[in-house]
From TrEMBL:
Domain Glycosyltransferase 2-like: 192-389
Cellular component annotations (GO), alphabetically ordered: Golgi apparatus; Golgi membrane
Major location category of this protein: Golgi
Pfam families in the cross-refs: Glyco_trans_2_3
Species assigned in the record: Populus trichocarpa
EC number: 2.4.1.32
Reaction equations catalysed: GDP-mannose + (glucomannan)n = GDP + (glucomannan)n+1
Subcellular localization: Golgi apparatus membrane
Record flagged with keyword Transmembrane: yes
Annotated membrane topology: Multi-pass membrane protein
GO MF assignments: glucomannan 4-beta-mannosyltransferase activity; mannan synthase activity
Protein name as it appears in the record: glucomannan 4-beta-mannosyltransferase
Keywords: Cell wall biogenesis/degradation, Glycosyltransferase, Golgi apparatus, Membrane, Transferase, Transmembrane, Transmembrane helix
Length: 537
């Protein structure tokens, strides 16, 4: 007898007919079938997770706000908390009371700015026989190498002890260059090392203000100065960066220094005790944040750090969106990758007290370097827009409006002069959170781009010269630096379309007027998507 194959009986209402006129109806049916059992629970869980992360970030910002107020009102100034005496010139002993200081200037194809840092370092007010300037040139362009070497020779002819060093390869990138520089025989008698990136221009009295803290306080390993941006007013992109970085220096670095004598070394504009670097294991290139890596390892060995907010060093902000994106990838991926590699080492450490471990793991790493990026993107660019399409899932008003407003106000204290740009800064930070979140996951998972190092492009006064040339000759043909297709960023354009559709749906069917925010966020994603974020001010 022939075997009868079983038949699956499908209700008539569930039989799909493939036809162009019925596709929308079938998709609607699938949506309704999946919404209640799958989409609503998952989205609800996403809302709860985002609210929890928002509360964590809110409490961190409130804590930082309270502490910085107490620091400003009641904490002693650095020269009162620590011993500090000005450097005195002694006619009898000559310059022997001045320690020998090494200044390292790592650079890579820095055509536009190499003269700035070399000139500023050569003009430091410190005895010439107690100062060694080391230019660590990893440039791959022979013409630039020659220009940098000639600049070093020019200053050497004026009596400056300046050394031009190159390597056969770029192993370890910046960390590798700094490490190789410390191995030179003429460095063995140096007690301290000061690091300046190629675009940094310290004031002549920089060492005289920083070094005494290290001389008179043997427990201090690092004195960090503050960055001051010479091109903050160049365009809207640089103004946005200034707002974010001013909060970092005004609040985060100040609070860390005052409460736990710990903060992340900024990689430049700082003076290290060389003995502390050696005790911590030296420079390592296992992540793209070699500066933070060294700072955490030194802190775990009991060394203290001091941040001086009034010790300011001029520097340059990225003025192209492409350069800024690469920089933010490195700054977001690196800390997450370092957290993955060091969290258990921090937990097992026995040299630092319990509350400092909590501060480093929870506040410094988890909330600021991971949660802050993830909640900004996932909540305001994904979950909140999706709840508009699924009205069964509600977001409480305190989570959608009140907490973000308080966090934003607290973030704005660093740059009062840009308070009128605050709303656009929020929208821009939401866009950048897309890239920071992606980079954070790459770092946590140690994926393909975890160790990608792209040197941030510095333009020096190139744009200023171009603007002056345009004023003097307004009829000159305009030269475009990029093709329009090179500017396009498909990820931002995709999210722009998604948020626009969600805003349209909310405009027609919603009750919370989220479409106002969604359409404004759509415009910001679109502007960055076509690469014009840095062209207006």
């Amino acid at each position: 007898m022939a075997e009868v194959s079983p038949k699956v009986m499908i209700p008539e209402s569930f039989q799909f007919q493939v036809s162009s006129s019925d596709i929308a109806g079938q998709l609607t049916l699938i949506w309704e079938l999946l919404k209640a059992p799958l989409i609503v629970p998952l989205l609800t869980l996403g809302v709860y997770i985002c609210l929890a992360m928002s509360l964590m970030l809110f409490m961190e910002r409130v804590y930082m706000g309270i502490v910085i107020i107490l620091v400003k009102l009641f904490w002693k100034k650095p020269d009162k908390r620590y011993k500090w005496e000005p450097m005195q010139d002694d006619l009898e002993s000559g310059n022997l009371n001045f320690p020998v200081v090494l200044v390292q200037i790592p650079m890579f194809n820095e055509r536009e700015v190499y003269k700035l840092s070399i000139g500023a370092a050569s003009n430091l007010s410190w005895p010439a026989d107690r100062l060694v300037i080391q230019v660590l040139d990893d440039s791959t362009d022979p013409a630039i190498k020659q220009m940098v070497e000639l600049e070093c020779q020019r200053w050497a002819s004026k009596g400056i002890n300046i050394r031009y060093q190159i390597r056969e390869n770029r192993t370890g990138y910046k960390a590798g260059a700094l490490k190789e520089g410390l191995k030179r025989s003429y460095v063995k008698h140096c007690e301290y090392v000061c690091i300046f990136d190629a675009d940094f221009q310290p004031e002549p009295d920089y060492l005289r203000r920083a070094i005494p803290f290290l001389i008179h306080n043997p427990e201090i390993a690092l004195v960090q100065g503050r960055w001051r941006f010479v091109n903050a007013d160049e365009c809207l992109l640089t103004r946005m960066q200034e707002m974010s970085l001013d909060y970092h220096f005004t609040v985060e670095q100040e609070v860390g220094s005052a409460t736990h004598a710990f903060f992340g070394f900024n990689g430049t504009a700082g003076v290290w005790r060389i003995a502390a670097i050696n005790e911590a294991g030296g420079w390592k290139d296992r992540t793209t944040v070699e500066d933070m890596d060294l700072a955490v390892r030194a802190s775990l060995r009991g060394w203290k750090f001091l941040y001086l907010g009034d010790l300011q060093v001029k520097s340059e902000l990225p003025s192209t969106f492409k350069a800024f994106r690469f920089q933010q990838h490195r700054w977001s991926c690196g800390p997450a990758n370092l957290f993955r590699k060091m969290v258990m080492e921090i937990v097992r450490n026995k040299k630092v007290r319990f509350w400092k471990k909590v501060y480093v793991i929870y506040s410094f790493f988890f909330v600021r370097k991971i949660i802050a990026h993830m909640v900004t993107f996932s909540f305001y660019c994904v979950v909140l827009p999706l709840t508009i399409l699924v009205p069964e899932v509600k977001v409480p008003i305190w989570g959608a409006v009140y907490i973000p407003s308080v966090i934003t106000i607290l973030n704005s204290v660093g740059t009062p002069r840009s308070i009128h740009l605050l709303f656009y800064w929020i929208l821009f930070e939401n866009v950048m959170s897309l890239h920071r979140t992606k980079a954070t996951f790459i770092g946590l998972l140690e994926a393909g781009r975890a160790n990608e190092w792209v040197v941030t492009e510095k333009l020096g006064n190139t744009l200023q010269k171009a603007a002056e040339a345009k004023k003097s000759n307004p009829k000159a043909p305009r030269k475009f630096r990029f093709k329009f297709t090179d500017r396009l960023n498909t990820l931002e354009l995709g999210f722009s379309a998604f948020l626009f559709l969600c805003g349209c749906y909310d405009f027609v069917n919603g009750k919370n007027c989220y479409f106002v925010y969604l359409w404004l966020q759509t415009v910001t994603f679109f502007i960055t998507g076509i690469g014009y974020v840095g062209t207006i001010i």
